[in-house]
Structure prediction request, 243 residues.
Amino acid sequence: MKIKTLLSLFVVLLFLNSCSKEEGEGGRASISGKLIIQEYNNDFSIKKEKYAAADENVYIVYGDGDYYNDKTKTNYDGTFKFNYLRKGTYSIFVYSDDSTGEEESGKTTLWKTVEIKDTKQELTLDNITIAKTTKDLNGTAKVYGALYVKDYNSSGDLVAEFYAQDEDVFLMYKNGDYYIKSVKTHYDGTFVFENLPKGDYKIYAYSKDHTGNVESGYYPEFIEFSVTENFQEITLDDLIIID
Prediction:
């Protein structure tokens, strides 16, 4: 009788222990997703570029908690993942620029609440799109340049060199996280960025990786420059990329 009582008590304790496991780490399930940026001008009147959000914070709340329990950074392609989760309810949230003007901070929060029902479930969210505003350029300086391509075959031999037309060139602040403007090269490979205020900048275009070390297959080639005077006109060296 005593053995049966002890066994019954042990089973009850195991049951209570299994029931007491709340949302959080310690499981084998996961939640993943992708973050997209929709870019606007500073008053949201013009919709600009749409692209994967790299190096952005994504937060997770376990159950009905009041504060986030963990956070992660998005990868270069905007993807993110929270691993080792137990069954239960989770809320994912990110911060977006506020287009209503009602938020004092200028930011609003976007939420997605989901439930993990299986211990090994791999749950993938629909894409989350956040808004980002960029300041319009209102300076007086100009920068000129040209995009030059070196074309190599699979053996690594240079087979052609030329100035590239209709290619994208991007402008960003030297210490910025995102580009602030892009232009297409002209028929002769030249390009120009206008209305630049004083400051430190860099331009870039994408070069093809022939080493196999870059997952996306492309990497940016940069040229840095500074605008130090009003109405300054700067001519850069050729921006050289590999094709």
User: Anything to note?
Assistant: The two ends are 82 Å apart (CA to CA). Confidence is low (pLDDT under 50) at residues 9-19. The first strand starts at residue 25 and ends at 41.
